[in-house]
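User: I'm putting together a small comparison set for a docking exercise, and I want a reference complex before I start. The sequence is below, and the ligand is magnesium ion. Could you produce the 3D structure with the ligand included, as structure tokens?
Assistant: Of course. I'll restate your input first, then give the structure tokens for the complex.
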Amino acid sequence: MSTLEIRDLHVSVDTKEGAKPILRGVDLTIKSGETHAIMGPNGSGKSTLASALAGHPKYEVTSGTVTLDGEDVLAMSVDERARAGLFLAMQYPVEVPGVSVANFLRTAKTAIDGDAPSLRHWAKEVRGAMENLRIDSSFAERSVNEGFSGGEKKRHEILQMELFKPHFAILDETDSGLDVDALRVVSEGVNRAKESTDVGVLLITHYTRILRYIKPDFVHVFVDGRIAEEGGPELAERLEEEGYDRFLPAGTTASA
Amino acid sequence: MTLTTDHSRATADGAHSHGVVPAGSRAERKTSFDLADIPVPTGREEEWRFSPVARLQPLFSDELTGDGVAVTVEAAPEVTVETVGRDDERLGRTGKPGDRAAVTAWNAVREATVVTVPADTVASGPTSVRIDGTSKDATASHLLVHAERHSEAVVVIDHRGDALLNQTVEVLVEDGAQLTVVSVQDWEDGAVHASSHRASIGRDAKLKHVVVTFGGDVVRVTPDATFTAEGGEVEMVGLYFADADQHQEHRLFVDHAVPRCRSRVTYKGALQGASAHTVWVGDVLIRAEAEATDTYELNRNLVLTDGARADSVPNLEIETGEIDGAGHASATGRFDDEQLFYLMARGIPEIDARRLVVRGFFAELIDEIGVESVEERLLASIEAELEKSMSVITGAPAR
Ligand SMILES: Nc1ncnc2c1ncn2[C@@H]1O[C@H](COP(=O)(O)OP(=O)(O)OP(=O)(O)O)[C@@H](O)[C@H]1O
Ligand SMILES: [Mg+2]
């Protein structure tokens, strides 16, 4: 049983005009096996939270703490966080020309586990995971994310989640841009990972449709850099019907 | 006809230059075998404007009498090797020298190495020409690689040691021949090397010309390729990696003088360290009579650290509208930190992540070379280069 604990997290982003505060005191505790959905208007800071947890250098933590089973996550480098068991499925996965998916997966797996996976076993595991996610085997020889469609990129992110077996996975809008079939395939992948590894999931989304496949234990409403309300799955339904207006200061709208 | 320029990342490096209109057409550039026709450059000339002319000065002298390199040829059994006097009639058939370094080398040289692939013969293995720098006396050398009709061969020219070398490499690809020439500049620190490659490509002949530059203080390679009959094809591939204070310059000229020929130019370079400087100039001339020409050239530079400068200048001159395709792309970008973040977010340590990205940048190019021993060596050299920049990150001493 692991615990990821975020306490009073304040984060600024580097801009040309100087540091701009985005997160204004985030509190969140996730335990193994739990699924937390985060919903909130565009620009409210959801991706910033995800990036800050992963350690993106553009985001500066100005105060607060993040611990993984008591260990100070903020003191770790980006790769150390991943090896400690954090995984971020990115909203916009990055293209890495000239690095094949197969080589990338093997290199990452070796780094995370501390030693190289047995060749035969690994090849079989990758093939199986790709089949489950309906990723054609030809993708193994393609460059990471290069020329992938939006949906293919998202499936490639979940492929990694299944193969790397993190303790905690942050899925940043993994459902955006997926057609109905892909949404189901990807959700099944997340659920497989949940069953087989008891991973704790932080699921950032705008839509309840993914929550029909991946059942959240908790739903958090994220507004203006902090969590404005928390509840169970029923909160998601309410948000979809009512929007975010009641969480916003009077006179503003969520479409800003 | 398509004319494309990829400017998307070209502004990442403020020092990047691009698309400067050349001073006069390549068709009008002075070429000559006569030393008196081409004066010692001042550095203001179009073809020297990026070069450290002072450091190249020893190679312009008309007294290039040194004996500073040893040439060793290990030829495939089907291939013949001779040392001939400068008056041998086979020399000088691939075009005239086009700048002061080239005309100096032509006039200074006393003898030449001639590597011949006999007609209708397929060489069973690569031929290796090793050029070892043995002293710092300014030296001229001359190599002719002659692929006779319908022959096939791979020739690898390998430069090592320390030298002041002004060199001519003539490449004569006769009708129907298929030749690969690889020139590796893996000099030690201190070497200064000017090299004029002049290739002539016959009917339905194909030349793959590969240039790899890692070492030396100043390396300036100027490959010219001229088509002499229809159906010819040239693929020019280059890879370079410049460290602090190195100057690596590659100036290409493809002369589409006849119809229905095809050229592809792909050069990629990485730079690291203060005052690392690379120059790539790709001149392509499609003459009025060269209908149905198909050409594309590309140069990409990856700037790994601050203080390095990459100049990249593609020039396409088109004198006929009747062509199949003509395009170019040039881009210089900084190392992409988002790629680094993505890889590190998957647990890969920074050193390995950087290595993956840089190898990835060169990967497709290395695959194109098609000579296994060269590919392996290249990967090893890239690793060694990366060690140097990694030592900056890790604080470990450089090798
Ligand atoms: N590099 C940056 N420079 C300037 N502003 C930034 C930068 N990165 C993020 N921001 C700003 O921070 C705010 C939060 O952005 P973030 O991407 O975290 O929102 P989000 O909740 O993920 O939105 P979406 O639902 O659209 O994905 C936005 O106003 C955004 O413009
Ligand atoms: Mg976002």
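Chain A touches chain B at residues 54-57, 77-79, 81-83, 88, 90, 93-99, 103-104, 107-108, 111-112, 143-144, 160, 164 (CB under 8 Å). Chain A has one domain: 3-91+152-247.
User: Thanks, that's exactly what I needed.
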